[in-house]
Amino acid sequence: MNIIGIDTSSAVATVALMNESKLIAEYTLNHKKSHSTNLMPMLDEMLKACEMKTSDIDLIAVCNGPGSFTGIRIGVATAKALSHVLNVPIVAVNSLEVLAFNSVSSYSYVMPMMDAQRGQVYSALYRCDGQVVELEGMGVKTIEEVLSQIEGLGERVMVLGEASELYRDELSKLSNAVIPPRSQRMARASSVCELAAKKYSCGEISNGFELRPVYIRKSQAEVQYEEKMKKALGNE
Prior knowledge:
Helix content: 25-40%
Organism: Peptoclostridium acidaminophilum DSM 3953
Protein name: ABC-type nitrate/sulfonate/bicarbonate transport system, periplasmic component YdiC
Number of strands: 10
Distance between the termini: 62 Å
Radius of gyration: 18 Å
Order of helices and strands: EEEHEHEHEEEHEHHEHHH
């Protein structure tokens, strides 16, 4: 089974091609945030380099958030289009689970964090003893809440994701927070493929028509609009 993995939920755009026996190719671009113009060329170039066609693909795996609202929409829309055109199933995985999978054989506690803006992060807590086990589901917290949670765990915690760099100074003050090398703390489409393959084997297939991005919180535009409306109504 040939699987294409897609993750554009952060500043990183990453795609991968994997089958049952090996990772065939992985293409990662962490330069600017131009997923709308780069994603399809990346997929096309990867398939050409592997001497494969879209008709050789059996499963589409996509990260559906949380993360960058625009990035998630691009990735999900592309995956849905490919699934529809190729008539192949699609499996969705969340971005925090994808990051946690990077450290499946490293630290027992892993906390992926992605920037949610306004001093907040998307986070979740996993235990990774040979496999990814969710201890706390994804949610939105202030950075202060996350720092307190990490300190309270006592044991060393691997912190992954773009927010680990954004809040590096705060995290460095905790004796049990560990920030791994750059290559390990960013999204990888190969992890999307691995997780999707496991979900697929368990029958967790997404309906391409109903698959939606996972945002968790409202966008800044929605928040500003609601505030504007409250003020307008309050003046009536």
